[in-house]
Automatic annotation (TrEMBL):
The chain crosses the membrane at residues 664-688. GO terms for biological process: homophilic cell adhesion via plasma membrane adhesion molecules. Residues 6-105, 106-214, 215-322, 323-427, 428-539, 546-664 form the Cadherin domain. It is a single-pass type I membrane protein. This is Protocadherin gamma-C3. SUPFAM superfamilies: Cadherin-like. The lineage of its organism: Eukaryota, Metazoa, Chordata, Craniata, Vertebrata. CDD domains: Cadherin_repeat. InterPro entries: Cadherin-like_dom, Cadherin-like_sf, Cadherin_CS, Cadherin_N, Protocadherin/Cadherin-CA. Its main location: membrane. It holds the Pfam family Cadherin. Keywords: Calcium, Cell adhesion, Cell membrane, Glycoprotein, Membrane, Repeat, Signal, Transmembrane, Transmembrane helix. It is found in: Cell membrane. It comes from Atlantisia rogersi.
Amino acid sequence: AQIRYSIPEELTRGAFVGNIAKDLGTDVAKLAAANLQVLSDSDSQYFSVNVNTGIIMVSERIDREQLCGQNPRCFLHLKLAIENPVEFYRIEVEILDINDNPPEFPSDEVSLRIYELASLGARFPIQPAQDPDVGTNTLQTYHLSANENFNLNVKARTDGGKFPELVLERALDRELRAFHHLVLTAEDGGSPPKSSKTHITIQVLDANDNHPVFDRPSYGARLVENSPLGTLVVKLNATDVDEGPNGDIRYSLSSHNSAALRQIFAIDEQTGEIRVQGNLDFEEATVYEIEVEAKDMGSPTMEEHCSVVVEITDVNDNAPEVILTSFSSSLSEDAPPGTVVAVIHVRDRDSGDQGKVQCHVSPDLPFQLRKDYEHQYSLLTSTRLDREHVAYYNVTVSASDLGSPPLSRHTVLPIALADVNDNAPQFEQASYEVLVAENNPVGSVLVTVSAADPDSEQNSCLSYSILRAGGTDPGLDPTRYLSIHPTNGQVSAKLPFDYEQTTYLQFHVEVSDGGSPALRNRTLVHVFIVDQNDNAPRVHFPRAGEDSASQFRISPSTAPPALITKVVAIDADSGRNAWLSYNLVEATDPGLFSVALRSGEIRITRALQETDPSAHELLVVVRDAGDPPLSTAVTLVVLVEEKGPEALQGSEARATDGGGLPTITLYLIVSLVLISTVSLVGLAALGVRCL
């Protein structure tokens, strides 16, 4: 026979299973005498029989899930063996499931990575929970915590398994919510039901669906011109809510910017710092508008633009500029005051007071500035000009701005004065005195007259000519004796001078310049002829032929110092050249006669004796004082004889000639004095002039 019992699992030891004696209808004592044994089909003895009571009890813990797993029904089979007679009874114990196990997820934490652009309705399976219980005690349902994006779908299989799935019902936005935390609850059908939970963490994977965004649509900055290189202009800040390469931003200057602007500003692609890399010049641009773009590194790339307005503040870094609108570097010296020399335009590229310019010139110059209107001046003459006084001016025009500190620029205008013929030639001397030795060679230069004309070029080209001086002898034409070089003023002799014919000559030298009309001037030249010893003394008495001697007769009784005769000579020269001396060179008896050195008187020096010859020949030499001296010799014959007709004639002749001697001597002395006086006066005047 087979007996079936049903007990729930997990009964405690000693728990009642059934009364075998009662169920078999056997007396308990009989069972004990029959040596009742319990034999199990399994290795474990889950049950035991109390032979005294016939009650089957649980002897070990019974776990239905361990014994039977997921089988809907679980049985343990026992065999009862009774001896005398041997009988076997089969006992089947059904182990009933109790809800002693909650559903269990494989992990308490589940991580999912879902692309943020996943399509709506996309399903994402979750590993199911396991519940070893069976029947209603096993897993029955899942519950998903409330959320905006996912719903739960439980997929049932034919074997009764239930698999949960997350279904995307609303689009994900990583930038709005990068992580979603859900709780999935698995619940069985026990009473009370058991459940377990797993935490689902959903990481939304980024898609490049957001472009970078600047924190401001435009930026402003103010810089001083000439800021040093590397000066920070502004630091841009753009953000991209995407992540990874999709949110990695690179800054750059837009292609809309000009090449010139790119040379002035540079941007750091990592930090967004815009710095100065070129020269900032307010005068070239007062405002720079920089277009900047920020790009992420996603694929495809997304970008955003902004503008940076940089205002440049002016500093006084530009000196004024002087521009000659009109300028004449040559100015006539007779230009009247107020003549415009130059028209000057000034400008300063700075702004405000720094761009206002003032001009001036030195007050020491004969020029002044007149302000015509803003930024334009005229340079005028302020006084009369004289090229001969100052021929060249460097006029410095100084232009200064009103900056602090002020900047200035100096422009030099070279102005040359053009000559006009306003100056007559001037001789170096008002008159010239020239001493010329007679017998001068033809063509020799007697004097050089020199004149100067402070004018220039053609106006200073001089020409010399000789004119007759007023009050001179009309018959004495200076051009007959003299000529003058027309350009260098050298006066030359055309004929040799003869002092004995001409002792003095004066004439005018006229100089004229090359201007139109020509201006002239004159100087007076005094030419003094200096005597040369070119004339030998000439004997006027006694007269004799070339080969004859003059004879004189004296009485033997002539007593000393009787005058025998007098030699009279005249020298056409003057001065020392006409100073004559008489010398007795030869005589028959040198001691008998003597000759006066200066007067030429011949006297007897002693009484005649009978032994003296009757005829005495005397050689008298007349010599002047020139250098070298010139001389003339005269031979006299003195006859000693008694008075007779010839002696009387000699006496008469001597008396006649003696009467004329004082007059001739007087003339010679007067002439010598006059000539000496004129010479001394001329030499004194020449010395004073030279001093």
